[in-house]
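Order emerges. One example.
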Amino acid sequence: QVRFVESGGGSVHPGGSLRLTCAASGFSFESYTMHWHRQAPGKGRELVASIGQNGATYVVDSVKGRFIISRDNSKKTIYLQMNNLKPEDTATYYCSATPFPDWGQGTQVTVSS
């Protein structure tokens, strides 16, 4: 059974940092591309960052230079280091793996002064 458990969210002021963690299980983690998504109140879910089997990364333009995605295959875990957070980063953050349709419960990030 594929499972994702996200953690590390919280409330921070603009300019602050958070590190999100996603622990995966139920599949051969090292063989799949992993993703972070987010969903802000009243909006659809959007892709934020991806990391391939070989460690190649992609981040959307709105977080480029501020967010870093990484993975630890030995721990079946991915991370999202979020720096210089802005109010528009407020959302629930989820991880996923292509091609699985499963989602975790998400972790809430709130950025406000």
